[in-house]
Amino acid sequence: MFQVFESGSKISREDYKKRLPELRAELLKTQFALQEQGIPLLIIIAGVEGAGKGEVINRLNSWMDTRYIETNVFRKVTDEEASRPFHWRFWRKMPKAGEIGVFFGSWYTKSIKNLVFGKESTAQFDAHMNQVKSMEQMLVAGGMLIVKFWLHVPEKKQKKRFKKLEKDKRTEWRVTDYDWRYHEHYQQFIKVSQRAIRLTNTADAPWNIIDASQKRYRDIAFMEILLQQMKAALNKNGIKNGTPAPVIPDVHDIAKPKNILDDIDLSPKLFKDEYKEIYDELALEIEFLAWQCYQKNISSVIVFEGWDAAGKGGVIRRLVPALDAKLYRVIQTAAPSKIEKSHHYLWRFWQDLPEDGKITIYDRSWYGRVLVERVEGFAKEEEWNRAFHEINEFEYQLIEHGTIVNKFWLHISSEEQLRRFEERQKVGYKKHKITDDDWRNRDKREAYKTAVHDMVAKTSTEYSPWHIIPANNKNYARITVLEIIRNSMIEALEEGNPDKST
Amino acid sequence: MFQVFESGSKISREDYKKRLPELRAELLKTQFALQEQGIPLLIIIAGVEGAGKGEVINRLNSWMDTRYIETNVFRKVTDEEASRPFHWRFWRKMPKAGEIGVFFGSWYTKSIKNLVFGKESTAQFDAHMNQVKSMEQMLVAGGMLIVKFWLHVPEKKQKKRFKKLEKDKRTEWRVTDYDWRYHEHYQQFIKVSQRAIRLTNTADAPWNIIDASQKRYRDIAFMEILLQQMKAALNKNGIKNGTPAPVIPDVHDIAKPKNILDDIDLSPKLFKDEYKEIYDELALEIEFLAWQCYQKNISSVIVFEGWDAAGKGGVIRRLVPALDAKLYRVIQTAAPSKIEKSHHYLWRFWQDLPEDGKITIYDRSWYGRVLVERVEGFAKEEEWNRAFHEINEFEYQLIEHGTIVNKFWLHISSEEQLRRFEERQKVGYKKHKITDDDWRNRDKREAYKTAVHDMVAKTSTEYSPWHIIPANNKNYARITVLEIIRNSMIEALEEGNPDKST
After folding, report:
1. Which class is A268-496 in CATH?
2. Which of A357, B61, B236, B459 has its CB surrounded by the most CB atoms within 10 Å?
């Protein structure tokens, strides 16, 4: 989920200057409105060290009315705090109606550190995260607005920042031994943080992950998201008091992260001869591995999503010859039937889950909820918004059972898609593959791009990341997919499933 | 929580006959309405063996339209089921829109058995229950109505039923070795079941515990609760579609369980001499134990609730002389101040939690949410209804920290209360203790009784049961409370806290 926020989202100096006065005015106005309505606001700021959490807090205090903001830094537990239940220190500092509490270091910090440094088991960690989830839901039900931020910088950037701070006499004190120790465990922190976010990323109190590589973008995105969520809370509060429709405002364009798809290099190619050679070998390997997985009762779920004409069918047709027909099924996910509509949207996918040792390939999947159903308005915002967390919990049940879960988004450029559409219309035996729907979807490419970005951001979990496959070149896409499938089988056979063994 | 349902709730043959035709007609009518609105209904039936779960299901199928009811008995896991994620077997049988699915043996059964027989750790059990809670909330958010029943019979009654079935040649096959093994572990099952219910007793999918000792009451209460919850779901659905106020119908009087307070024997007395002797000894013991707890860092929370003039103050005044003034604080909980009102209702109680080794005595407490705030309408139904689960989670955090939690309801009869009120008005130095509010509350005794019953039922947990103290005789009440406090301290010192050590 973090890779998505490493694209280097940027705001130019001019855009920054142009937006700033208006943004600050709106922030203040909205802060006063919240105050008037007596809504308490809790801002939780977390993220990797070196992302500039402190700087953001300073900015917040200078842009809003500080008289009603209390910033709380939770570092070492005091004696008084240690001798009471863990959450006591936070309850002491809860913002009251109309005020803003900033928690810097929160109920997440301790458990994340404990799991990284082995002082807490995964089961204990999950239990604490469930407690946190429950408590946040309770506070929100009680009328509080909780806005949670996660500031992210990539590993290299972190190192660079620490080094830069150390070089300067005026700032070297800011980099501590702890920071470097943290840096050594960067990957582990990221993995554990993903778990924390997955478990607590509810529709009531969602996480907002921000690419903090560029300070201008970081600060503006932070404030724009805060503004948007304050406005949404005001609108919801209006409804509670009788006003009809809840208009959830969109976040300002300037704050939108660089779309993950814009970052994908679509140039890689594989020429026919090379492809053929690699493919033959891969197919043999996968055939062998699939049988081994069968013997060891390891099942696989393989999900294909992607643009129309991106070649999902083609990849699947290259994958299945490597598999014994007894071992796999391909599920084509079309619009739901009448009976499927009369069930929960996840129901139909549960039916086709593979039994131990077998493979189910989903040609489109439950992700329709946050793609087509979102873009076409078949699902309401609250419905598709809830779905991210629901899907993560669903897939976790697969992982817990020991199933390998692979998710692919096949990505092609708009031009390549057009080329393929036109080709399909020209070539007789391909004509059936292109419909009016395809053209209509093509017009909505921007909306789909946003949906894909959010999907990858919110459902790339520590146990099942999304694989975005550059698919302008079909050979390259096919080989890349098969390699990932092969590697995941090798890994599962070697390591077993860590979650299942607990 | 189960003791509350051992009062022997009964329905007379005449009342049964009188209500039956109307109830059946209403059940059918409401079933059809649910069907028309396309609401799927999931009925989960759990409870102790021998409570007659099968009989209730037969009754359900004969009273409603069976064409739209599918009863699923989940016993042994089949090979097909074992080779997929645990919840697969349930997803296969999910009721679709407009239909009713009955789950007999559900996603609760396996974990409860596993914890009782040591095949699962407490942490794993909690994780599974959290998964279940999450899934139920997801299904309800998706439009499903989930009605959960727990049929309860006391240990002795269970034995009697098994013996009776065994005696009769026609029914002896129904009692298996498993049943007797279950019976041997009755107390353990009850403890684990309480934990399961506590963790999953959400406002979205609350548990309905039924006293199943009398078959007539069991069957009628089951159907009346089902009817009430179907009607509530229809009303809620109406709102979603635009209709204004959500009228939540009350369950029919006939189904209301015998109030726990009606079962309390108020006759026990202690005469002055005897009282004096026991008290002196107890006070010495408690003084010593409190210091030991202080040295071992064990804190205590003691909650006093009870009728006006039941003698809360008097008990507290007998308790505190046994305690060193450095060790305890007494918190008087009056109507919330302005600042308290601007926080979550639990906030003010968090502030006064004792530090390790110390004692906080709450003279009235967070239970005001489900007592005075419920009865007086200061909290909306959805608010006080949610509070049961919130309070259980709050108190669990105390237990987890190692705090002893004792909760007392001081019970006096209506006549005794009247006598004390009148005495207070007559005696000069007692006059300030009686206010108009007290008289007003007295008029609402029935509403309070219901609230007390529900409170005891829903917040008596496996780690902190309610103690209902017969308090018509002040000496008896004081000694009983002190004895319970003494015993809980001895227990905590001997055993340590099992939850904290995990």
Report:
1. alpha beta
2. B459
Q: Do A356 and B401 touch (CB under 8 A)?
A: no
Supply φ then ψ for residue B101, to 5 degrees.
-110, 130
Return the residue of B nearest to A124 by Cα.
Answer: B123
Residue B144 touches chain A, beta carbons under 8 Å = yes
What's the pLDDT score for residue B498? 47
What residues of A are in contact with residue B195 (Cβ under 8 Å)? none
Q: Structure tokens of A53?
A: 């959490």
B501 interface with A at CB cutoff 8 Å: no
pLDDT over 90 (residue B392): yes
- Please list every residue in chain A whose beta carbon sits closer than 8 Å to the beta carbon of residue B91: 346-347, 350-351
Retrieve residue A238's tokens. 């209006």
Collapsing DSSP to helix, strand or coil, B270 comes out as coil
d(CA B241, nearest CA chain A) in Å? 12
The whole model's pTM is what? 0.90
Q: Measured between beta carbons, which residues in chain A are less than 8 angstroms from residue B97?
A: 341-343
Nearest by CB: A127 against B126, B339, B356 = B126
Query: Residue B346: its chain A contacts at CB < 8 A?
Result: 91
Element (H, E) at B450: helix B445-459
> Whole-angstrom Cα distance, residue B152 to residue B457?
13
Distance CA A441, CA A372 (A): 9
Specify the fold of B3-258.
Rossmann fold (3.40.50)
| Alpha helices (runs of H) in B168-214, residue ranges in sequence order | 177-184, 186-200
Report residue A172 as tokens: 């070297």
B119 contact A CB<8A: no
Chain A contact for B311, CB < 8 A? Answer: no
In percent, the amount of chain B with pLDDT more than 70 equals 97
* Architecture label for domain B262-501: 3-Layer(aba) Sandwich (3.40)
List chain A domain ranges. 3-258, 268-496
Hey, do B3-258 and B262-501 end up sharing a CATH topology, with the first three levels equal? yes
pLDDT tens digits along A423-481: 988 887 777 778 888 888 899 999 999 999 999 999 999 889 999 999 999 999 999 99
In this prediction, the answer to ipTM > 0.85 reads yes
Asked if residue B88 has pLDDT above 90, the reply is yes
